[in-house]
Structure formats: C-alpha cells, structure tokens
Design brief:
The protein is built from 25 helices and seven strands. It has helices spanning 7-14, 18-46, 49-55, 59-77, 92-123, 135-152, 154-158, 169-178, 185-204, 210-225, 232-236, 253-285, 291-307, 317-325, 332-352, 357-372, 374-380, 385-400, 403-424, 471-478, 480-483, 503-518, 530-539, 541-545, 554-564, and strands at 85-86, 314-315, 436-437, 460-466, 490-497, 522-526, 550-551. The two termini are 52 Å apart.
Length: 588
C-alpha cells in the first residue's frame, strides 16, 4: 500500500544520483562514529550489574546490537528519509526497572510486546494521534528521565566503592552519601577531564563528534599510564565479535500479564520519540514523513531487537540531526551508520575493552543535560497554573515513583484539565474550522468583519483559528506555512474566536513565529482576547512578537501589513465593529 511504502523504496524508485550517494555514505560514517560510544553507554546504564552477571551478558554489546539491528531496519522500512534509530536515553529508566524485576527474559518479552503494540498502532493509523499528548507531559517526563540518568552515572563518574546501586531515587542518593569517602582520584580525574573536554569541544568545535574523541583519548591515557580505572574490559570482559543468534524469549502468560503496563509505556515512548525526531528532521530539511509507516518500522525493529537480545529502540533526535547536518538525505545514510557499527564489532571489538566507564558516565551526563531542556522547563513554569501542575506532577512521579505511573497520571490530569477548559468556554464549539483560510467566510454576509468586503494586498495571507487553542489544535499551526506555495511577506493570524490558549498552543505559536522569521515573513496577530493576551504578557511573547504587531481588529492588522509593504492605508468599512471586548489601536 502506498501509505506504508518505505521512504527507502520511494527514493530508489525516484533514482539516486552519485552525488547524493556519496553524501549519504559520508553522513552514515559520521553518525556511526557518533553512535558508537552512545550505544555502549546506553547499554551499560540500562542493565543492572546483578542481572548482567547472572545472565552472562555484556550490556555494552546489547547497546551495539540495538544500534545495528534497529538502525538498519528503521532506515530501510521507515517513513522518514533521514531518521536514525537506536537506543536512546529515554528508555534507560524503564529498561532498568523491567530488568531489575523480571531479568533478561522479562526485558526481551517486554521489548517484543512493545514492538507488536507499535506495529498495531501504525496499522491502526495512530500516527496522527501522538500530537494529542500535551507538551507539559512530554517535558515533565523527559526532564525527570534526565535527572535519573544523571543520578545513575554518579557511581562510575567518581569511582565509588559500593555494591549494587539502589533503584529508588532517594535511596540511591543516600547510598552515594554513605560511600562518598570511597571515591577514587584517578577515576574522578578521567571522568572530570572527559566531561570538560566534551563541553569545550561542543562550544569550540561543534562539528567534531566529541564523544568518540574523548573515548579514544581517555582509553589511550588509561592504557598508557596503567591507571587503576575500571574499564569495559575489566568489568564486562569486552564485547563480542559478532551478532548473536536470534531466539524467542520464553513465553510465560503470567509474565506477559505483569509486563503489559511496562510494554505499553515502552510502546508510547517509542511512538512519541520516533515521531518527534521525524518532525525535527522534516523541519531541518523540508519534506514530510509518513507517521504510520514510521510506526510500523519502529515496531518491526523493536521486535527484531528482542530476538537478538537488544534493547528497545526509537528515533534518536540528536543522531538524526547530526545525519542531516552531515549531508544525509536518504535512508542509505541510516543503513550505512548501522553497517559502520557492525564493522566495528567484527574488526575492532578488543579496542572497546580499554574504554573507561568514567568516560561513558561523562557522555551520559551530557546526554542527560541535553534531554532536560532546562530552558523549556523553566519557560513552562510561567504557563497557566494548571499546566504547571501537570508538568511538576509528571516530573515528580517520574523521578520519585515510576515512569509508567508518571505518563498515565500526566495524561489523566491533562485530559481532566482539557474537559474543564471546554466547560469554561461553553457555547463555543471545540474547533469548527481549524486554521481554515478566510476565503471560507465569503458566505458569512452577516459578519461585519468578514474579509469578503475587505481588500487583502498581494503577498498577505490571512488565516483564522476557531475555538480554544489547546494541544489538539496546535499541530495544525505547525503545518500552515508548508501548505502555502510561497512564503508570504506578511501572515495575519486571526484569533477573534480564540477565548483561551494553553502551554502547548503557546509553544506552537512561538515555533510558528520563529518559522515565519526564518522564511522572512512578518507575523501579525488580530483579535487577541483577554485570556490569550494575559498568557502572552506572562510568558513574554508580547515582547517577542512586538506589541506593534498585535491588534484588536482585522482592519488595523491589514493596515499594518500595508505599512510593512509600503502601501497606503485603507479606511475600514462603515459596518465594521470591534472584534474583542476592548478594541486595541495601533498595537497594544
């Protein structure tokens, strides 16, 4: 079916020129180098030490298996041209919990179940439903995961002499405090030096993959000076030279019932992360991904990872962005990235044994900082109090309770708040015509503010949002400029029928403003009501867009557009009436 036709097949059918192939080849090698230390680090952080020793498995090898298998299948079968798949930090928390409670067989079973669920989601056309997960929920659990990842690396970073690290957040930090005096100077020196080098490279030479550089440098230093530092080889015995033989996990109906909540959470995370990554890639290079095709590919890849003893996988935003920046334009780059990692396992596995665990801990600390999105988290704290409550509840439950509980409670809270907001604006339809062009108003002869009796200059586009601007509507705004053949000089967004806006709507509006800026389009707002205006003032968006670009009525906005385009002003029709309770003139 065309709807599920992989982008790789579409690219091959359209033809691939030599220049694009060379760019994809180089991009794949670059991303493979970037992914190498990350895959091993994610594997080590995801599997508890006792589970690894009892099962006789190599956690860094599990991370590499995942990057190879999932990386190849997601690129070959997916709905995005440049998506890079593999293990990501978002799964560390839930993988660690499942492996602690149910062992390796339980983890393989949960990953297999999650893969099947994601395939069903794709076949059921759930790709378009992911946008309904509110921004405060995703930000809350992402920031919470970042805190937990950072905490999980403290032992290896300082070289603390202690046993198994407790899974509970508070117990973990209590154990760190009790063993603080056991830190090792050499280990901390390697960890701190690696962290400093990563930060300096990101600031001074951002195009060079810092993670692989610090891994090589630290391994060389430890080996040359025979430093008493724990390495992959000393703790795990290195990594295998090949992929394992695929096998099905032991089927246990009781275990399957117990794993349903965890597998469902994994599936939701796979879907969210992969589609968010695909959206980021679309924004960087243009084009549009196939959401449902991407979900099917993600599900198949995770099923295969379970059979090969890997970890759950999804689209990796940072590696996908690196792929685009390196020149990758087709799925060939993602498949090459997987083959580069496979070649490393086949030809250079012994070198991995020299990598210090403190260095991988520093790499994951940087990953945790990037995941936390402190700026977005801080900005959300100035959102309406109900959104702040959802954000902090999701964040707190992720850190102090369980990710499965956090996502479920966050979604329930967001749904309840949505219903309350709908009740607060009773008499207004949810969305009668989301972001429909004002040409649809031609039939509204009873509307004194219709565009049918006004002249819209060439180069000016006027769109309108009808109803509360909540998370269900925000996704429409993101695609608005893409639907226009040529970016207009001025874009007027009418908000006269928007009685309320939430944090996700606000975030989408800010992204839309920045997209207009990048395309050289001036954004004007018309008919801003009291509640959205208060949110603008609270978040500082009024200063971002400029008070001179917000208007109470369409006539003032059109004249502002004429001013920008050096055209004479036009008097409003005699039947025009104020669009909001108190008309704003000349901006606010």
């Amino acid at each position: 079916m065309p709807h599920y036709l992989p982008k790789s097949v579409a690219c091959l059918r359209s033809g691939l020129c030599r220049e694009h192939f060379v760019h994809d080849l180089l991009a794949g090698v670059t991303v493979g180098i970037i992914a190498l230390p990350l895959a091993m680090a994610f594997g080590i952080a995801s599997i508890p030490e006792d589970v690894a020793s009892q099962s006789g498995i190599s956690p860094p090898a599990m991370g590499l298996y995942t990057a190879v298998i999932a990386g190849f299948l997601i690129s070959a079968l997916g709905g995005s041209r440049v998506q890079i798949g593999g293990p990501t930090g978002a799964f560390i928390v839930i993988i660690y919990g499942v492996a602690s409670r149910h062992g390796l067989e339980g983890l393989m079973t949960a990953t297999l179940m999650a893969g099947v669920i994601v395939v069903i989601m794709g076949l059921s056309r759930f790709g378009g439903m992911i946008k309904f997960i509110p921004y405060p929920v995703t930000t809350g659990f992402t920031a919470g995961i970042a805190v937990i990842i950072f905490s999980s690396q403290v032992k290896d970073f300082f070289g603390l002499q202690m046993g198994q690290v407790p899974a509970d957040f508070l117990e973990k930090w209590q154990a760190f405090a009790e063993h603080a005096s056991t830190w090792k100077t050499a280990t901390f020196g390697i960890g701190a030096g690696s962290l400093l080098m990563l930060l300096l490279m990101r600031r001074l030479v951002p195009r060079i993959p810092g993670a692989i550089v610090v891994v090589i440098v630290s391994a060389t230093v430890v080996s040359a000076f025979h430093l008493p530092v724990e390495t992959i080889g000393s703790k795990f015995g290195g990594i295998p030279h090949s992929l394992p033989t695929p096998r099905l996990p032991t089927i246990n109906l009781t275990l399957i019932r117990e794993l349903i909540p965890d597998a469902t959470t994994m599936a939701i995370l796979i879907a969210i992360e992969s589609l968010l990554s695909a959206v980021v890639a679309d924004g960087m290079m243009g084009g549009r991904h196939k959401a449902d095709c991407e979900l099917v590919a993600q599900g198949i890849a995770n099923t295969a990872c379970a059979l090969f003893g890997g970890l759950p996988a999804t689209g990796a935003i940072a590696r996908t962005a690196a792929n685009v920046k390196s020149g990758g334009r087709t799925p060939i780059a993602g498949m090459v990235h997987a083959l580069v990692l496979l070649l490393f396992m086949l030809l250079a596995a012994p070198l991995a044994a020299q990598v210090p665990l403190a260095t991988l801990a520093s790499v994951l600390m940087v990953v945790a900082w990037n995941m936390s999105e402190v700026g977005h988290f801080r900005a959300l704290l100035s959102a309406p109090r109900s959104d702040v409550a959802v954000l902090l509840t999701t964040f707190g439950l992720t850190v102090f309770a369980d990710l499965t509980v956090a996502v479920g409670v966050g979604m329930i809270l967001a749904s309840m708040l949505f219903m309350k907001r709908m009740a607060d604006v009773s008499g207004v339809s949810v969305v009668s015509r989301e972001l429909s062009a004002d040409e649809a108003e031609l039939a509204e002869f009873s509307d004194p503010n219709t565009l049918s009796i006004r002249q819209v200059p060439d180069g000016v586009e006027v769109y309108e949002i009808n109803g509360p601007f909540f998370f269900g509507v925000a996704d429409r705004l993101k695609d608005t400029l893409n639907a226009i053949e040529r970016p207009p000089a001025v874009f007027i967004l009418r908000m006269r029928r928007v009685p309320a806006i939430d944090a996700t709507g606000m975030h989408a509006l800010e992204e839309f403003y920045h997209k207009c800026q990048r395309q050289g389009t001036v954004l004007l707002l018309s008919g801003v009501h009291a509640h959205p205006l208060r949110v603008f003032l609270t978040t500082g968006f009024d200063r971002t867009i400029g008070k001179a670009n917000m208007f109470g009525g369409i006539d003032a906005a059109l004249n502002r557009a004429r001013e920008i385009m050096n055209l004479p002003s036009v008097s409003p029709p005699t039947i025009a009436v104020p669009e909001v309770a108190r008309e704003m003139t000349g901006g606010i």
